[in-house]
């Protein structure tokens, strides 16, 4: 087992966050878990070991994120890893979005992570070490689900903020790692809880088949052991992204036309 780390994890009451929390707790890490739903969060913490700290937090508010940091530091004396995992989806096309839709997606998916970065990176700088992990989405790179609209846009913004922070830190603080995690489709309650619901459709096939939250949690746990700038949790995603950026027009023209759909082709085709 790896040496114990102090890990702060947002969005820990369900889905990927809850599964990841239990995995990290089983590995002996000390956890500060955050989410808005206190009852569910306490239940997850109870399964993560006696040192797991549950801190009810609305990450849309800067002061609450700072309070989360302060609670973790008071309990454990330091933070080694901070994982911005909280997020929410939407099921509306671009032309149907309201101001409220846009603001909520940006608050939950971008500003919350920004608050986390601004709260914890100065602590990492003081120590000269630390690992920041932002959980994004493959849709922040490739528009395979246009009904996710501003969700995908918010994740693209998170991708850019993450990369720019990493570039800011890399020369003066080589001991601080900044990583981006991009899951694809994951079998959680995410689609059910998306604003506006999720359009019905056939189950995905080919290399972009859904992953379990356990698979995604395993990928993130591996990233903590061996930090790299970014990972796709689905091995097929990198090749699909490469095809998209190599010829956006051809990719979009072929999308949805049976075997011409890059997401449905074999990875080695």
Return residue spans where pLDDT drops below 50 for at least 5 consecutive residues. 257-269
Total count of domains = 2
Distance between the termini: 39 Å
**Helix share, percent:** 40-55%
Can you tell me the CATH superfamily of the largest domain? NAD(P)-binding Rossmann-like Domain
CATH topology (fold) name of the largest domain: Rossmann fold
Q: Compute the average pLDDT.
A: 89
How is this structure best described in words?
With 269 residues, this protein is α/β, with parallel strands linked by helices. The chain folds into 2 domains: 230 residues, 3-Layer(aba) Sandwich (Rossmann fold); 34 residues, no CATH class. Helices cover 45% and strands 13% of the residues. The protein is built from 9 helices and 7 strands, in the order βαβαβαβαβαβααβαα. A 7-stranded parallel sheet has the order 3-2-1-4-5-6-7, sandwiched between helices. The longest helix has 29 residues. The termini are far apart.
What attributes characterize this protein structure?
Rossmann fold; 269 residues; alpha/beta; 9 helices; seven-stranded parallel sheet; 2 domains; disordered C terminus; 13% strand; globular; single chain
């Amino acid at each position: 087992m790896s040496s114990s780390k102090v890990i702060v994890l947002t969005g820990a009451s369900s889905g990927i966050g809850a599964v990841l929390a239990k995995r990290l707790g089983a590995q002996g890490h000390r956890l500060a878990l955050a989410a808005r739903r206190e009852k569910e969060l306490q239940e997850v913490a109870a399964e993560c070991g006696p040192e797991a700290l549950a801190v009810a937090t609305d990450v849309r508010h800067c002061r609450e994120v700072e309070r989360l940091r302060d609670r973790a530091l008071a309990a454990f004396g330091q933070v080694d890893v901070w994982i911005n995992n909280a997020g929410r989806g939407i099921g509306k096309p671009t032309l149907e979005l309201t101001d409220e839709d846009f603001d909520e997606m940006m608050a939950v998916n971008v500003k919350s992570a920004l608050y986390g970065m601004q709260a914890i990176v100065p602590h990492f700088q003081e120590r000269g070490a630390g690992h920041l992990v932002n959980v994004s989405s493959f849709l922040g790179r490739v528009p395979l689900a246009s009904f996710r609209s501003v969700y995908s846009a918010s994740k693209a913004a998170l991708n850019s903020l993450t990369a720019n922070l990493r570039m800011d830190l890399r020369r003066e603080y080589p001991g601080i790692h900044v990583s981006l995690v991009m899951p694809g489709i994951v079998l959680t309650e995410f689609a059910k809880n998306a604003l506006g619901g999720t359009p019905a459709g056939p189950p995905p096939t080919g290399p972009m088949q859904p992953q379990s939250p356990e698979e995604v949690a395993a990928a993130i746990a591996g990233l903590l052991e061996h930090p790299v700038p970014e990972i796709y949790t689905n091995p097929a995603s990198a090749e699909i992204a490469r095809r998209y950026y190599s010829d956006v027009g051809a990719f979009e023209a072929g999308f949805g036309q049976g075997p011409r759909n890059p997401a449905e082709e074999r990875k080695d085709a």
